[in-house]
Amino acid sequence: MAVTVTNPDLQAATSPQNFEYLPFGKWVAMRAGAGAGPAARQSHSALWMGAELLICFGDNGSAAMSSCAQYDPVADSWSSPIVTGSPSARTLHVAVWTGTEALFWGGCTTSSCGTIVASGDRYDPVGRVWTQMSEINRPIAGAEPSAVWTGSQLIVWGGRNISVDLNTGGVYDPASDSWVPMTTTNAPSARWKHGAAWTGAEMIIWGGHTSSFGLNTGGRYDPILDQWSSTSIANAPSARYNFSTIWTGTEMIVWGGSPAKQTGGRYDPVSDSWSATSLIGAPAARAFHRAAWTGSRMLIWGGFDGTNHLGSGAEYDPIADRWRALPDLNAPSARRSHSQTFGSNLANPSLFIFGGGSTAGVLDNGAIFKYSP
After folding, report:
1. CATH number for the domain that contains residue 334
2. What is the pLDDT of residue 9?
């Protein structure tokens, strides 16, 4: 029988054989029901704003949505306040939190992506005000591009513009409301459904899909020099798309993806080298799942294995290269294309799951995994 302790890191260090069995948190439901939260949606964005969760856009299985809602985890309450401005409905888009406002870019007007949303929106949660990004020098917009926040700028790259895969992008400065095009010299090949991470100095692009096959190549972009360089392919994970990507502070970790995979890789930009994530205790193969970074662990949850929607997940410790399953008790129902966000500054650091698609249709509910103190 495993011994329960309040510090799982201490237990892992002293009794590693018990690590995967320790209770280290619990699932609780988010308030739901008619009028209690956002309408059902998938492929939406979710941003942790420091005290509240912002859910925006997505689609209902067909049409894109223009609505948003804010969730207060302390009060377990939703609000959809009257705001100034009218954002564009979008799904399959990208979003970042700057520290003071939310930025949204690209996407489609329907889940089948017949029309591209060739614009961006900014949301100020304090003033409850929407404004549109400048369109001067904006990049070509597409479905499922990548986006990173550098601390002062938004970088968007790639995507699919109806039938054309993109290898173009732009750098947006919200302070001046201005775009600067990115060079395509030595840029990675055109793609969408890829992963991206910001290292503090460079944006790393990896994997993704073209019109006919998956990729296991990537590139590194320096926004100061406006310069691309390639990532090593030695020991890189197999080609994939619809996978998850996180940045640990020293490495980019990619995991899962289509066709449903149980493997992953860790990329070190200093040595330009790849190493595999452990398969021991790894979650079942999946794609369309989500990942979040706690500050020391990667959390994987949900997804689709090619036949079934999944309602399971796991925590990965990159230092120990070790997995442990998240509890099943009171976990959200199985789903894919949901949102997943982590609030590290709460009394119980928490993982927020909301919405997504399931065998029952598009969902309007969610749950919170609260770490034990």
Report:
1. 2.120.10.80
2. 30
Q: How far is CA 373 from CA 74, 77, 91, 346, 348, in A?
A: 16, 23, 36, 10, 6
Using CA atoms, how far residue 186 sits from 25, 120, 158, 236, 273, in Å, is 46, 27, 14, 19, 19
Question: Is 268 within a domain?
Answer: yes
Bridge partner list, 232 = none
The number of CA neighbours under 13 Å toward the Cβ of 207 is 29
Angle 130-134-140 (CA atoms, 0-180°, nearest 5)? 115
Task: Tally the residues of the chain.
Answer: 373
- Please tell me what DSSP assigns to residue 217: -
Tokens of 355: 């919405």
Q: Say if 338 falls within a structural domain.
A: yes
Judge contact between 168 and 159, C-beta under 8 A.
no
pTM of the model: 0.92
Residue 290: domain span: 26-30+232-373
pLDDT in tens, 167-201: 999 999 999 999 999 999 999 999 999 999 999 99
Q: What is the pLDDT of residues 315-346, one digit of tens each?
A: 999 999 999 999 999 999 999 999 999 999 99
Burial 243-267 (b: 16+ CB within 10 A, else e): bbbbbbeebbbbbbbbebbebbbbb
Report the pLDDT value the prediction gives residue 22, as an integer from 0 to 100.
44
Could you give the angle at the alpha carbon of 279 between the alpha carbons of 4 and 23, nearest 5°?
15
* Contact present, 205 and 156 (Cβ < 8 Å): no
Question: Which of 35-39, 254-258, 304-308, 364-368 has the lowest average pLDDT?
Answer: 35-39
How far apart CA 305 and CA 284 sit, in angstroms, is 8
Q: Which residue has the tokens 């009060």?
A: 75
Say if 294 falls within a structural domain: yes
Hey, what are 306's tokens? Answer: 């090619």
**In the chain, how many domains are there?**
1
